[in-house]
Amino acid sequence: MGILDHLFGKRKAGATEQEQETPLSLQLLFPRQLRLDVNSLTRALRGFHPSLAEARFELDARASTTMGAEVGMARWGRHAVQVVAFGAPMPASVVEQCVAPAHYAAELKARARAHASHALLFYAGEEKDPLEQYVALALVAVALAIEGAVVVLNESAHTSFPAQPLVPEEGEDLLELLQTMPLTALYVGFVKLEVKGQEGVWMRTYGAPKLGLPELAWHARSDGEARDTFELFSGLLEYLRRSGARFQDGHTAEWESRQVRLRAPHKSEKFLESTGELFVLEPR
């Protein structure tokens, strides 16, 4: 598919329901104008891991003219990631949705909101595993982070992550890091909600259906439960991803020392609406 097809999720003849969806995507915010440097991006990708030794980045002059933005493609093995770099800020509503609930310092959030340009990354390769697609996207995001990105966004997950800590130190295995980091760090969003008329804080995921997983929610007594709930969500989602098991209403689950019961959201819990399955976790 071409760049416009990726942006708008064009239907392919004979495609399955999953293939007809908009491809997985990550986004980056930059404090200055970004220019896609073929040589530096190719060099960065090849330096991340031996499996990327033949990686290359190419510019697409025709698509760049059509889009009014710089367009390029990173390729290695069965992976391909399309990059669209715009010399203007991302829509403020999208930025706020991803930056406001994120778990990093207010100073970095202010820098993200004040960004000058942005880049959109779309998976365009042959890999079917959505986690491996996200890892490929993240590898290209880190290559672009070297060019000065402030944060990496995942719009479908309502979350973002500081870009510079992802840049590997010498000898660090970036591929392993991106394959094993908690799902709720970037690939699935972990968001806290204050609901009018309810005490405590609701915590829920966003974007898990993109990985073929259900959304999870927890009604916490306070913010103090955030870390444990983050780990609970990530652990249960990772278990589902690896085992192929599926949750159902009424199931019980255990992660480390926490035992929970799962239920479907009540009709009154409109704030838990989801594009896929969602289960509320309650103490068992």
Report the principal-axis shape. globular
Radius of gyration, CA atoms, in whole angstroms: 19 Å
Distance between the termini: 48 Å
Low-confidence stretches: 1-20
Query: What structural class do the secondary elements suggest?
Result: alpha+beta
Mean pLDDT: 90
Helix content: 25-40%
Give me the number of helical elements: 9
Number of domains: 2
Query: Main beta sheet: strand number and arrangement?
Result: 7 strands, antiparallel
How many E-type strands? 13
Report on the architecture of this protein.
- Mean pLDDT is 90; it is low at 1-20.
- By secondary structure, the chain is of the alpha+beta class.
- The longest helix has 18 residues, at 226-243.
- Helix 2 packs across helix 6 (130-145) and helix 6 (130-145) packs across helix 7 (174-180).
- It has a 7-stranded antiparallel beta sheet, sandwiched between helices. A 6-stranded mixed beta sheet has the order 8-9-10-13-12-11.
- It folds into 2 domains: 3-181, no CATH class; 189-283, no CATH class.
- The protein has helices at 3-8, 38-48, 61-67, 92-99, 106-113, 130-145, 174-180, 183-186, 226-243; strands spanning 25-30, 56-59, 70-76, 79-86, 117-123, 151-154, 159-162, 189-193, 201-206, 215-220, 252-255, 258-263, 278-283.
- 30% of the residues lie in helices and 26% in strands.
